[in-house]
Amino acid sequence: MADVNRGNRPLSPHLTIYRLPITAITSILVRITGNALLISAALVVWWLLAAATSESYFDLANAVITSFLGDLVMLLSLLGLWYHTLGGIRHLIWDQIIALENVPAEKMSWAMLIGSVVLTALTVVLV
Q1: Domain residues of the chain, as ranges?
Q2: What pLDDT is stored for residue 15 in this prediction?
Q3: What is the pTM of this model?
Q4: Which helix (H) or strand (E) segment is 110 a member of?
Q5: 8: number of Cβ within 10 Å
Q6: Distances from the Cα of 98 to the Cα of 21, 62, 104, 106, angstroms
Q7: Which letter does DSSP use for residue 9 in this model?
Q8: Which residues are within 8 A (CB) of 43 and not within 5 positions of it... i.e. 6 or more apart?
Q9: pLDDT band of 95, cuts 50, 70, 90
Q10: How confident is the model at residue 57, as a pLDDT?
């Protein structure tokens, strides 16, 4: 075996010098929002089960969901739902072998980020 000095070589690419591309960040965020939506769905199921159980238990669940923290969780869940939907649409487009080059893929990533915020705001205003 060759006499190689393995102790002085840098790690490459190291996290301190490597910047993730926007497409990788948005892909990771799609996975995170998918898991976060499971938690918010569990809260909605809890609310529905409380409605079917008793009036006092429903009052407790409704107070939690309609509190400031509950409203914030539901608003972020709405943002995550729109973001996850746009991520799914992006992957459907990619499945057709469209916009896989760097520039169009980056534009679609930015469109996902901006579009999810705009669609969330429109949903809150209109509903």
Answers
A1: 24-126
A2: 65
A3: 0.84
A4: helix 102-126
A5: 5
A6: 19, 45, 9, 13
A7: P
A8: 65, 70, 73
A9: very high
A10: 96
DSSP-derived secondary structure for 79-96: HHHHHHHHHHHHHHHHHT
Closest CA to 90 of 117, 108, 64, 114: 108
3-class DSSP string for 37-72: HHHHHHHHHHHHHHHHHCHHHHHHHHHHHCCHHHHH
- The total of other beta-carbon atoms located within 10 Å of residue 109's CB is 21
Top CATH class, 24-126: mainly alpha
What's the start-to-end Cα distance of the chain, in Å? 70
Q: Using 50, 70 and 90 to split pLDDT, how confident is the model at 7?
A: low
DSSP state of 11: P
Structure tokens, 117: 């915020």
Question: What are the two backbone dihedrals, phi and then psi, of residue 20, each rounded to the nearest 5 degrees?
Answer: -65, 140
